[in-house]
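ENCODED BACKBONE
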Amino acid sequence: MVPQDPTLFTGTIRTNLDPFGIYTDKEIFEALKRVQLIPEVPDTSISTTTDPISTSNRNIFLDLSSPVAESGNNLSQGQKQLVCLARALLKAPKVILFDEATASIDYLTDSKIQATIRQLESTTITIAHRLNTVIYYDKVLVLDQGRVKEFAHPYELLQIEKGLFRTMCEHSGEVEVLEGMAKEAWESRLII
């Protein structure tokens, strides 16, 4: 499970991602790349001096022994969510639950994370308020006051003129974009 309020432990990046020492550095770095915490190609122009200005701007995720404070207090909320997501991806579970897992992450990073999630071989269940987070999913379950109101592929739901999902998309101001994304997902599943 990757929750909105992630749990991190006092220790290092490594111990938070791999507390039992099961995975190689390569596997851990791959998970960090998949969640956008480190770049695909590390920036070699980053200074490795002990100058306080250059060390304060370095990417701590490039060093697995970088410290993580109690509850991850030395990381932003978005970084905490991404560490928790990397930990889940590293385990490659059969089922993974995302509960507003990218709520504190900017939209550009979120779209990259969603592309990564779509590539998973795991069954994914996502609780989200960001519509672009679920627009590529196989099925969307729309709840209203705890009751199931709609359940279908996002593209099918968008075809329901007065439907709740369509109404939410319209209120987002991005209905055309979301409908295009949903149509793309709908058509790609028909090709398979």
In short: The CA atoms of residues 5 and 64 lie 22 Å apart. Confidence is low (pLDDT under 50) at residues 44-55. Residues 1-93 form a domain with the Rossmann fold fold (CATH 3.40.50.300). The two ends are 29 Å apart (CA to CA).
